[in-house]
Write a structure and sequence with these properties.
By secondary structure, the chain is mainly α. About 55% of the residues lie in helices and about 5% in strands. It has one domain: Orthogonal Bundle (Vanadium-containing Chloroperoxidase, domain 2). The chain has helices at about 5-15, 20-25, 35, 50-70, 75-90, 95-115, 120-130, 135-155, 165, 220-235, 240-250, 255-270, 275-305, 310-315, 340-355, 380-390, 400-415; strands spanning about 355-365, 375-380.
């Protein structure tokens, strides 16, 4: 659902009161009043400074990822995964000064290594954060643990194939034929993510572990039904309902940014959760997303299925050369959907580690739909909207959206059952 927000309620839900000011002063050690009093679903008993550290360093991670401007989602997800996995390992089984020092040191060291241009800002944040933690043996041990965890995870993930150059190896589609993916106008950008399938997963044993099989045949009922739906509701000039238009425009940007909005608000709402618990939540969300995206690329570049634009403007079923989509299709094969893959993976993690319902309403905004907020109280609704959005944007077929979501969920359920492999 969506609704208008008052400025005060928007600040509470969006965490703006916990955003840049908190990141800048964290680290003055002051947590918001409700962070000290609101009960959380996770383990209780942590000092208010832990809540401030958690939200503040989440905001700092968001800032670092934004500053890095990685063009591909997997590199963005990998930055989150590496940094918060180090924090999760460093804080596992710890509390108090040890956990706090380990948490900030692990995040600082990984983010500096991954986004070196942010070193000065991260150094200041680390100094301010450590100043809020009482000196002593626990703090010293935590600092050492955080540095060690960061070094270990960085070493494990060195040369893992998620850098932009490795992900975007050159690829030229074959000669046009029915069903075969082609680069999609109006953009002239070359094919992307053709090398992503060769990246090293965190938890999967192979990049084709859960192959969903090929897309439906071009004469199948599923394909013809989906083609008709994408033609009618994905067209730029389609007679969508206001809600369909809102959903389509809202969910067009990458899912990683939406995931960050969700976890930032969860950290604020679950203010009594331990640093180990919140670190695990953020780490697992992005570790499983990286694995799902690696698997996705293998499937996409195995089956090389065409986008609705190509099917409708050049295909044999009611060909319409004038058809254009509401949004521009990405420059990689259509089947299955990457947005819905990440949406499905996200739902499984949040259902498992937070619960099927959010402890407080989550308000999301979109860079593609200024002035609009959509408020959610459960994760399944978000996933359903992402599935619908990619059809109504005109960039996917519904079956591909459903298969993408199912694949993301399958990869993530496997990952949750094997977290011991990454020390969680």
């Amino acid at each position: 659902m969506s609704e208008g927000l008052t400025s005060s309620r928007r600040a509470l839900l969006m965490g703006t009161a916990l955003g840049a000011p908190l990141a800048a002063g964290l680290l003055g050690g002051i947590a918001p009043a409700d962070a000290r009093s609101r009960p959380g679903r996770f383990a209780a008993g942590n000092p208010a400074v832990a809540a401030a550290l958690a939200v503040g360093w989440h905001v700092l991670t968001e800032s670092a990822v934004a500053a890095a401007a990685f063009p591909e989602p997997i590199t963005q997800s990998r930055t989150w995964a590496v940094s918060w996995l180090a924090a999760a390992r460093a804080t596992k089984g710890q509390k108090g000064a040890h956990a706090s020092a380990a948490f900030v040191q692990a995040l600082h060291d990984t983010l500096v290594a991954l986004v070196p241009a942010q070193e000065a800002a991260l150094d200041v944040a680390l100094s301010n954060s450590l100043a809020t933690i009482p000196d002593g043996v626990s703090k010293a041990a935590g600092t050492q643990a955080g540095a060690a965890a960061a070094a270990a995870v960085l070493a494990e993930r060195a040369n893992d194939g998620t850098d932009t150059a490795s992900v975007n190896v050159a690829f030229t589609p074959g000669a046009p034929r029915p069903g075969l993916w082609q680069l999609t106008p109006p953009t002239t950008r070359p094919a992307v993510r053709a090398g992503q399938e060769n990246a090293t997963p965190f938890l999967l044993t192979s990049n084709d572990q859960f192959d969903p099989g090929p897309p439906p045949a071009l004469d199948s009922h599923t394909y013809l039904q989906d083609l008709a739906e994408s033609r009618a509701l994905g067209r730029a000039s389609a007679a969508r309902t206001p809600e369909q238009y809102s959903v389509a425009k809202f969910w067009y940007p990458g899912i990683t940014g939406f995931s960050a909005q969700i976890t930032r608000q969860l950290l604020a709402a679950e203010a009594r959760a331990s640093l180990a618990e919140v670190s695990k939540l953020v780490a697992v969300l992005h570790v499983t997303s990286v694995d799902a995206q690696i698997h996705l690329a293998k499937v996409k570049y195995t089956y090389l299925f065409w986008r609705p634009f190509t099917a409708i403007t050049t295909g044999n079923v009611h060909q319409d050369p004038t058809w254009t989509s509401l949004e521009v299709a990405p420059q990689h094969p259509e089947y299955p959907s990457g947005h819905t893959l990440q949406g499905g993976a996200q739902q499984v993690v949040l259902d498992a580690l937070v619960g099927r319902s959010s402890p407080a309403p989550v308000a999301l905004t979109s860079s593609n739909f200024a002035g609009q907020s959509r408020i959610y109280t459960d994760w399944a609704t978000i996933n359903r909207e992402i599935i619908d959005a990619r059809v109504w944007e005109g960039v996917h077929f519904r079956n591909s959206d459903q298969v993408g979501s199912a694949l993301g969920k399958q990869v993530t359920r496997y990952g949750l059952a094997h977290l011991h492999r990454i020390g969680l």
